[in-house]
Amino acid sequence: MLAYQKPCTIGDPVDDIDTPALVVCLNKLEENVGKMNTAMEKYPGVAVRPHVKTHKCPEVARMQMRAGAVGMCCQTLTEAEAMVGGGVADVFITNELVGKTKLRRLASLARQAAVSITVDDAANLQDISDVATEMGVTIHIAIEVNVGQDRCGVEPGEPAVSLAKLATSLPGVTFKGIHCYNGWNQHVRSTEERSNAVNKVVDLTRKTLEALKAAGLECPYVTGGGTGTFHFEAASKVFTEVQPGSYVFMDADYYKNLARDGNFDTEFLQSLFVLTTVQSAAASGERVVLDAGLKAVSLDSGVPMLSQRPDLTYHSGGDNHGIVTPGGDLPVGSKVWLIPGHCDPTVNLYDWIVGLRDGKVECVWPVSGRGPGN
Amino acid sequence: MLAYQKPCTIGDPVDDIDTPALVVCLNKLEENVGKMNTAMEKYPGVAVRPHVKTHKCPEVARMQMRAGAVGMCCQTLTEAEAMVGGGVADVFITNELVGKTKLRRLASLARQAAVSITVDDAANLQDISDVATEMGVTIHIAIEVNVGQDRCGVEPGEPAVSLAKLATSLPGVTFKGIHCYNGWNQHVRSTEERSNAVNKVVDLTRKTLEALKAAGLECPYVTGGGTGTFHFEAASKVFTEVQPGSYVFMDADYYKNLARDGNFDTEFLQSLFVLTTVQSAAASGERVVLDAGLKAVSLDSGVPMLSQRPDLTYHSGGDNHGIVTPGGDLPVGSKVWLIPGHCDPTVNLYDWIVGLRDGKVECVWPVSGRGPGN
C-alpha cells in the first residue's frame, strides 16, 4: 500500500484530523449535486455527464450518477479505470490516448463498460480500431474539434468530417459525435463576456455539424461546456451534453467569477477545503506558518483563500509551508481552513478525501483516480 | 492499493514505458551520489545528511547511506516513516511537528531509530517532552534559528538560548544543536552572490553559538546548507553537517545556477527526467501536445526544459497537457524527455520512479514518502 496513512477515522471530530487534509463538507457537496440536476431541468434533451477530473473519486461519481448523470467524463485511463471499477457503466475519455499499452487498457475497459474517447489523428484512430478489433470490443469515437482552446483537436469543418468518415469506415469503432470544449472560457470573469466566448464555440460547432451533414454523416452527439459555461452550451440547441466538473467542490478561481456577477453562477457552494495547522508562530507579529505548501494546495490558479478570514493572506512558503500575514492572532496548533485556488490539481495531491458532517468525520474516500496522467 | 499502476516492468525498453513517467538515469544518479562523497572529503569533520524531500524513496536513501551519509533529513513524518521502514537508522525531521497525533507517530519512530526534530516554540517542545516521556523514548531537539529564510525558526541569539535551556531541562528530550538553513540562498544565481548570502547565515549562526556558549550550553551540532550552497557551509568552520538533497537528481532551476558560473556546481549531472509522449499533432505547424501537464511536472520554479531540444519550448496546457512550440518535427507517439523545473515537488506527483540503465528498465521504485505533507 503506497498511500500515506489515512488522516482520521470515521467519527473523529475536526480537531483529530491530521493535517494537511483534504476535507469536503458533505451537506454542501450534496447540495451542489442536487443543484446541477435542478439547473439541467431547464434544458430538456441535454444530458449531463460530469467530469471526474475534479474529484477522481468513485464515491462522488456514484452520487452524481444517482442524481441523473448519464455517465462520467474522464481525462485519464487511471480515472476511467477507477470509475468503472467503482461501478460507473459509461465513461467518456475526453482526451487522446496514444500507444498500444494505453489502447489495450482502453479496450480492456470496453469489456466492462460503454467506453468512448476523443480522437484528432487518423493514425491514432486506426490504432484504436486495430486494438478494438484484436480484443473484440467496440470503442465509440468523438472527434475532438478545436473550438478555441488551441491545444488538441482538429480544426472545425472539413478536418473533422475527414476523421468522422474514417471512424464510420473502420471496424471496432463507431462515430459517436464531436467534442467541442474550450476550457479557458470557464474562467472569463464576467457573465456577458463568458456568454460571448461560448457564442464563438457554438458558431464553430455549428459549422462542423453543417459540414458533417453535407457529407451525409449523422452526428447525434455534441458535447462540451464546464462549470463556468454549461448554461450557455445547454441553451444553444446545438449541444446534446455538458461536462461540468468543478461545481461539486468549487474553488477560489471560480469564486472570482462569482464575485464579478450576481447571477446563476452563485448556485454552487464552496464545499472543498484544505484543513491546515499553524506550525510556527515564532514571528507571529509578522507572520505565522501553516503546514500546507505546494504539495498540499496547487498554486497554478493563484494562492488559496483563508476561509472566513479575508483579512489574512496566504503566501507560498515552498513545498511544505504556507506563510500567512499578518497572522498575529493565530497561535501554534490552531486550525486554518484554506479554499484551494484550483480544485482539480489540488485533489490530485491527496490519496484521501475526508467527508465531514456536523463537525464529525462521516467517511474517508480514496482518490483512486489520482496520478500524473497515465 | 491506491497507487496508479506501475508504468513498466523490469527489462522493458524505453518505448514500453507508459507515460508520463518519472525516470532516473541510474548511472548518473550513482555518479552524483559518489561525487557528493568526494566533495565532502575536502571538509573533514563535517558530516553529510542528505535531504530525502528530493526523492522520498528509501532505495535512494540506502544508496546515500552506503556512500557515507550519517543519516537522512526528512521534511515530513511520512518521509521519516518511509525511511525508517526502509532501513535508515537515523532520521532528522527538519520541520516543526504540531499536535498529539503527529507527536505520537514521532515517538513511535523513536522506538525504531534515532530521531531528531526542529523546534521553535516552547509549548511545542513541552508537548514533545510529554509524549516522549509517556512513550518512554528520547527525542533529540535542534532549535530552528531564522537565518534569513523568514519562515519558521526563532531569531538568532537569545531566543535560541532560551529554547535550548528548556530542552536541556525537560525529560524525554535532549538538546542536540541548532538548525540554520536558508532555502532561498540555494537559488541565488552567481557563485559570488551565493557565497555572500551564506556569509550572512554563518554570521547569524556564529552569533547564536556565542550566545549559547555564554549561557554555558555546549552545541556540538550545527546543520544547514543545500545543493546550491553546501560547500560554503561546510568550509565555514561553524557547520558540523550539511543537508544537500537535489544533487541526486538536479533540475532546470539548479541548471540556471550552473549556466551562470563554471565552478564546482557543475559537478552534479541531470539524472531525473519526465518521459512523455506526443499525444496530438493536429496543429503540428504551430504546436504539438504532450501528455504531461501540471499533474506530471511541478511548475512552481518555471516550466520544464526539453532535453536535447533547446529549440523547443514547453508551455503549460493545464492539468494534463504540455504544449510545445514550434514542434513541427514531432509526430504523434514520439517520446519527449522533460527536465523538471523543480525536482522535489515533481517527484511528489508520482508513486513510481523508473530506474533506467543502458536503455532498459532496471528497477521501479516506490516513492513511499510521497504525500501532501503529513
UniProtKB/TrEMBL annotation, chains A, B:
Known cofactor(s): pyridoxal 5'-phosphate; Mg(2+)
InterPro entries for this protein: Ala_racemase_N, D-amino_acid_metab_enzyme, D-ser_dehydrat-like_dom, D-ser_dehydrat-like_sf, PLP-binding_barrel
Gene3D superfamilies associated with the record: Alanine racemase (3.20.20.10), D-serine dehydratase-like domain (2.40.37.20)
A GO molecular-function descriptor: carbon-carbon lyase activity
Keyword Lyase: yes
Keywords from the UniProt entry: Lyase, Pyridoxal phosphate
SUPFAM superfamilies to which the protein is assigned, alphabetical: PLP-binding barrel (SSF51419)
Superkingdom, natural source: Eukaryota
Domain D-serine dehydratase-like: 271-357
GO biological process: D-serine catabolic process
Family per record: Belongs to the DSD1 family.
Family matches, as PANTHER family: D-SERINE DEHYDRATASE, ZGC:162816-RELATED
Name of the protein in its database record: D-serine dehydratase-like domain-containing protein
Organism: Littorina saxatilis
